[in-house]
Amino acid sequence: MKQLTPSLSTHPWQQTFELIKNPIQFFKKYQALYGDTFATKILGRKSPPVYFMGDPKAVETIFTAPPDIFELGRVAHVFRPFAGDKSIIMLNGEEHLRQRKLLIPPLSGKRMHFYQEVICELTREEFQKIPHKKPFAIRRLMADITLKVILRIVFGLKAGKRSEQLQQLITEVLEAITNPLYSTLFFFPQLQIDLGNYSPWGNFIRKQSAIDELIYAEIQERRGQDYSQATDILSLLLSAEDESGKKMSDQELRDQLITLLFLGHETTASSLAWMFYWVYSLPPVWEQLKTEFVTLENNPDPESLIKLPYLDAICKETLRLYPIALISQPRVVKETIMINGVSYNPESILVPCIYLAHHREAIFPNSDQFLPERFLENQFTAYEYFPFGGGNRACIGAAFSLYEMKLVFGTIFANLDLELFAHKTVKPVRRGITIVPSEEIHFIKNS
Question: Does any domain span residue 4?
Answer without folding.
Answer: no
